[in-house]
Known about the structure:
The structure is a homotetramer of 413-residue chains.
Chain A: H1 12-35, H2 50-65, H3 84-94, H4 100-103, H5 110-120, H6 123-134, E1 139-143, E2 160-164, E3 167-178, E4 185-193, E5 204-210, E6 216-221, E7 234-245, E8 249-250, H7 256-292, E9 294-295, E10 298-299, H8 306-364, H9 376-385, H10 393-405
Parallel strand pairs in A: 1-4
Antiparallel strand pairs in A: 2-3, 3-7, 4-5, 5-8, 6-7, 9-10
Helix pairs in contact in A: 1-2, 1-3, 3-7, 5-6, 5-7, 7-8, 8-9, 8-10
Amino acid sequence: MSMDLGVTKKVQPLIDAVRKMIDEDIVPANEEYHAEIGNNPEHDRFKLNDRQLEILDGLKAEAKKRGLWNFWLTDSDRGYGLTTVEYAYLAEEMGKCPLAAEVFNCSAPDTGNMEVLERYGTDEHKEKWLTRLLDGEIRSAYVMTEPNVSSSDPTQLSFEAKKDGDEWVLNGEKWWISGAGDPRCAVYIVMACTDPEAHRHSRHSMFVMDADTPGVEIIRPMQVFGNDDAPHGHMHMRFKDVRIPADALILGEGRGFEVAQGRLGPGRIHHCMRAIGQAERALEMMCKRGLTREAFGKKIATLGANYDIIANCRMEIEMARLLCLKAAHMMDTVGVREAQPWISQIKVVAPLMSTKVVDEAMQMHGGEGISQDQPLAGMYTSLRTLRFADGPDAVHRRQVARAELRKYTNEKI
Amino acid sequence: MSMDLGVTKKVQPLIDAVRKMIDEDIVPANEEYHAEIGNNPEHDRFKLNDRQLEILDGLKAEAKKRGLWNFWLTDSDRGYGLTTVEYAYLAEEMGKCPLAAEVFNCSAPDTGNMEVLERYGTDEHKEKWLTRLLDGEIRSAYVMTEPNVSSSDPTQLSFEAKKDGDEWVLNGEKWWISGAGDPRCAVYIVMACTDPEAHRHSRHSMFVMDADTPGVEIIRPMQVFGNDDAPHGHMHMRFKDVRIPADALILGEGRGFEVAQGRLGPGRIHHCMRAIGQAERALEMMCKRGLTREAFGKKIATLGANYDIIANCRMEIEMARLLCLKAAHMMDTVGVREAQPWISQIKVVAPLMSTKVVDEAMQMHGGEGISQDQPLAGMYTSLRTLRFADGPDAVHRRQVARAELRKYTNEKI
Amino acid sequence: MSMDLGVTKKVQPLIDAVRKMIDEDIVPANEEYHAEIGNNPEHDRFKLNDRQLEILDGLKAEAKKRGLWNFWLTDSDRGYGLTTVEYAYLAEEMGKCPLAAEVFNCSAPDTGNMEVLERYGTDEHKEKWLTRLLDGEIRSAYVMTEPNVSSSDPTQLSFEAKKDGDEWVLNGEKWWISGAGDPRCAVYIVMACTDPEAHRHSRHSMFVMDADTPGVEIIRPMQVFGNDDAPHGHMHMRFKDVRIPADALILGEGRGFEVAQGRLGPGRIHHCMRAIGQAERALEMMCKRGLTREAFGKKIATLGANYDIIANCRMEIEMARLLCLKAAHMMDTVGVREAQPWISQIKVVAPLMSTKVVDEAMQMHGGEGISQDQPLAGMYTSLRTLRFADGPDAVHRRQVARAELRKYTNEKI
Amino acid sequence: MSMDLGVTKKVQPLIDAVRKMIDEDIVPANEEYHAEIGNNPEHDRFKLNDRQLEILDGLKAEAKKRGLWNFWLTDSDRGYGLTTVEYAYLAEEMGKCPLAAEVFNCSAPDTGNMEVLERYGTDEHKEKWLTRLLDGEIRSAYVMTEPNVSSSDPTQLSFEAKKDGDEWVLNGEKWWISGAGDPRCAVYIVMACTDPEAHRHSRHSMFVMDADTPGVEIIRPMQVFGNDDAPHGHMHMRFKDVRIPADALILGEGRGFEVAQGRLGPGRIHHCMRAIGQAERALEMMCKRGLTREAFGKKIATLGANYDIIANCRMEIEMARLLCLKAAHMMDTVGVREAQPWISQIKVVAPLMSTKVVDEAMQMHGGEGISQDQPLAGMYTSLRTLRFADGPDAVHRRQVARAELRKYTNEKI
Lengths: 413, 413, 413, 413
């Protein structure tokens, strides 16, 4: 069976255009954008000030004008009709600059949420939210993770949705809700337990709702290694008697995990390819540092184990990228469900590999490597969170192992 | 040759007393102290406010009252006369809470600086600064690292000191100067290049000076993974025509490295034992989490590879501690110079081991592990910096290897 | 650029046919063949007895009859015209049984030697040796490695060839000459130093010669972890005034390294893909063992870290295979020279990965895993030698690092 | 609590004497001894020929004469009364040469078996076997491991002993019975299942018996990576209606595991310290090789990552030795049972560390490293078996983890 993991003629010009716009426009703007954080009248790091909005809107308008928009919509006539493999190469480029994915309307959690609405939403859902999300007018949040529940076993999630007449009433806490602090975040996709007595995988349902529904409270931003990641952020939220209409339900009662699975496949690959983009960037920094800084009268790249370190980073990036492309190829050809073991593989490999490469790059930079003068520490902390996001490593290794063992047994594993 | 690495009868009661005071007094105060950061009229995170000073002064007075003070003074009649091995056990305890070392007047960089003054300082130096440091009235900074110089080869340091009549004139930049932001920091030990034409190891000299000498400017706090570590902090400083008297010179012109070496031996062991204390704390947290959190109907400690992870952490902590104690024992018996290979060994091992243990503990905690709700991320970032502090891993491995090879050759290695 | 790493329609039936013949014919014969070692009148483990020849000849005749022959000849009209990628999949299959590669006339060192003769040999060379090698009538050896010379720097090789009238006179020792003990080995490709004063890479020349030339002495078989690998073996040889004709020279004086490089590219990929085949076999054994053996009332596959171990093996095999296929693809598209960094990468990765997987499989089998009752120990030792063969890991990492650094500098690295 | 891990005045002269005798007498004899293997009239590699016996007996007589005998008898007035810590240093020395431990009557499995007889044997047992074992006249075997049973869970062992009148009747197979092939092996300690219906840890009993009892058949030597380890060897045995007297029972019915545990503690430490001795020898070889062999005009020790490799080996040896000494110290002070977690720790650490060091030493030696010209491959294979012997790594990690978790819970773990 053919397995073309290369850059196609179709995607090559898009890669070039994305790379050019990142280098020339987004990287410089990115710095100013982040320097502006907190510079608004209320001193609120999560409020975007006028200059930030101007930067973002300008870049997004330009991207749209150039036709660099919504690449991730692989299966829809609203997008380019790229394959997941093709998109993966674009995701790698976008990984190299924090602001890039949003500029091209390809950022998490919006892409996953749009995918949910596109695939499982009603016409009303689509009309109300999908169009504006696709246009980049609003942003969204995916409200799933809860405090006090082991993220390795989401069947334990206890945030509750109870039917009350024509409405659902939501109660409970959620945290690590990325993007929920952004003032432009207008819609939530929410996982809630609708029947705690049901079978493990039928207890939960998925809902879509307005972000400004009464009863929703943002308690605080969660910190990642002490950073609040403003203005995007990861919020700790409380829902108190939040009432949403009956048709907020997506796909059907008890089908929350089905929606979640469909959502997670592509998103994991996007995350992983962006991680690989960051690893490439770190390796480039490592090499350049190694060639310009000297010790004992020699370039440090040539000292000690540094050749081995650089070579190992190159080999591990190559392998992780190929594995990620294969997972994307599987998604394109056999579908999310069958591609699951490969998606789990790359979900383990890419974050581990990229944190390791960034860690080596930090070490090659000396103390400067962990300071604000280099982007490496920020890359490290954001990559480190990927080892929890969408399931910790251990859960994915378990999936891979069980798929492997099932080749040799019909018994339940 | 006897090599007693155990807890002696002399130090056991001190360990007990230190542990008791940390648990009962310092841990609770630590939280309040850090919550107060930035709560002063000028909104300056590096200014201590009244409540912070009250907390600190209260704890220090209590420690002094209980006779838990200046343990690190191993060879002096001003201290307990503990061996380095004995002190190492105390350092491990103090590593378990950020504020602890300072409360017992055992914190870096003061201990190293006091050691310099005690060992190499003139009577005037001692009178002016050592007594107050020993009393915990003032704090100090060690001003060595420079931007743009590879930390693996300090002979390249170019911050300059020029003789001008009866004075030395200092010019240049320094960074990662820990504690220089603390308003109580009154004295600097400064490494400067006094003769760039001299032999590699004779170019530099060490000076001691008042922190408020005109011409010294604190540019900014360096950030560690985005954190400023206020109020202690790591400062980027500029010296512009800073004039200090001739007798600020320590030990003699061109003997800067000699002073630095004498200073670094014990300090590295203190750092390492505190790192081991943090690793112990992380392992304890990992076990408790594994016993209280469940997934798939089982305690997570019993799932997957977690037994192996816990066991590996235990084994690596045990081994690192023993190696550290052996290095301390070598210092006690054969002196800093001969103990150098062991000190280099532990300088590599302890930070690597402890970052790894903390990383596993974070993973066992799920997303919470990297958040502000647990101390793990803060432990991680502070331990990660140890892989640069006092020389990066590569330099210490090089030292260990050369010592090993010299057993078999008389040629220069 | 397209990068199809999949199984093509062209090669799929060949894979099926090879797999079928290995499973049905070669695996059973392999056991008998190896049990016969040493069962000849002279008790010489390197002499093939009648039964061994019968087995081998029978299998080879059958393979030839089925058209399963000389797949490796990628660029020639004498072969299938497979791409290196296509061949790689066949090499993986052949790696799963020790005898397989030879049965299909695809075994080292013959393939590399045939490649040398095909590419650089004169018509006489081809007529005399290539045809018979392609027919599987004779075998060959590649006589390069020398005792007392670091294999990381082959420019030091000192085995000498001196012109004497119309002849070259060879003197010196060689070792690890694989296959030279096989009685059917009729031809040697020999690297010799022809001008020790020339530039590092022009000192050596390559020769082709009859194996039964007077003066060639086989001293002993080298042992690999105590095994002589009979009847193939790795010989220690001495050449004493061995005279060969002037036209034994290949390509030209001083061009030995050029020939060696051309020879090594494809060979390394073959080795690596066979290694991956062995890793796949080991993983299969590990899973089956884990499903059938119990401890504490549970299948051992489900105990402790075994899920993680199985998952890691699967992921590392996947990644190594993809990297190997990419290296093959580069060879197919940009040529051996440009593909060099990828070939070096896979030369490091595949042996390390496969020894690790086999080691885990041994551990999962308990003591039996290292015994004669399982093939794992034999697989381990043969894979371990690959970390020396054709250059040790360190040399290949160096190549990879230098290629990486050259992207950012024009200076010599 | 004091923890003296150093070399005491008592053991220092013994270390010196052992080292001297190994260097001057045993190392040279060792080579001749092993070269003689198989040189006996029947071509049986497991029969000792006259020259072998002469070598062995000569060395043993000399050792006895010098008072270098039975050091391991830590608690008895028949030995030196060394502590386990003191003995550990001697074991390390003896690990450096294969024949050494036997020469000083300190080799496995005899020491463990003597310990069993000394501690649990009746006066008759002692008289019949212990005295001759202590004198080095006979050797012994420990008959525990069985085919088809996962070594991680010995409660599954099914080799059976049935009471029949005044006798026990033994039936079943055992394998990996080290030393049972040695013609001087006169006594077996045998673990057998006496009550399959009893509680997991009460099913088995321990017996002592003459090796030449009718019905015992040695089927074949097990091979370790293809080597039979003659003449010591590891035998696969079959017992068919083997009748032994009632008083062959040790300690009592159902107390087999109790005996096994008492036996295994010290033995594991001996194994581990010998492994550390081998690692030291490998590191020495690695350094010497690195200093004498050149590539690219430099000593290979100074190239690439070799400094790091040497340093890592040194650090890991140091740490493993200290951990082993601590385990020995715990045995000396709190007893085998309480020392169990430390013994499990060192049982995991020492074999892994020493195989790794030897593997690096092989790599530094190039192909020669795995050949018969260097002892490294033999060291590797014998160390690799330690990861199975007396329980695989996974079982020991499990023990360590459970001990750790029990600090924080009273529930069953």
